[in-house]
Amino acid sequence: MTKCVRGKANPTQPTKFRLWADSSGYCQNPDCQAPLFVDLKSGSAAHFGEVAHVIAASADGPRGDDTADEADLGAWDNLILLCANCHTIADKAPADHPIELLLEWKESRLRRVEASLGIASFATRAEACDAIEPYASQNRYLHATFGPDNDYRIDPEAEEAIVWQREMTDTIIPNHRRILRIIDANTAHLTHAEKETVAAYRVHIGGLIRRHHGDGGIRTVLFPREMDKIFADS
Ligand SMILES: [Zn+2]
Hints:
2 domains; single chain; two-stranded antiparallel ribbon; elongated; binds zinc ion; 8 helices; mainly alpha
């Protein structure tokens, strides 16, 4: 009987891959975050990550629920990747590790990974605005300080021109890409007018990238000034 229950509650290979990807290779307990891979002297690596059930695979296990559907127990929603230590502790002290806590661990890791990649979907326009602001303000500062609107524009060998070229490829274009990723993950918050602004911005960035990565080309669309107010409260 137990074997049968366990069989259905076992995750599939794709589910395991997904859990490993979610974890980024670190225990999903935010107070632990132990690296799950260790380098061996032989040159290979070992891992001590374990797939843990939030609701146990059997009704009498940790956080068990005899009404739960067996197949649901082996689904991604009911699983979390922990280091061997945290898995043991969570299952030996289930009262201290309720369902909500384990799901919160998992959710917070997902949000942090997304945020580090600039792809978080935010609940409000204000949060999306805040996420963009550091990149936008850095670009505004660099443009004002070294941009082509400064006095040196007629001298392409001026120091500012060289700094501007370098900042463009190292900082400004990567910042634009981050901003676009944040916008693309939050299009639900855009007004109709803002969607048109973003379309122009995207064309502008495309031209910028081609021009500064040696593809020559001419300036296509100017930076739409309305971008400075994207996601801002009107
Ligand atoms: Zn751990």
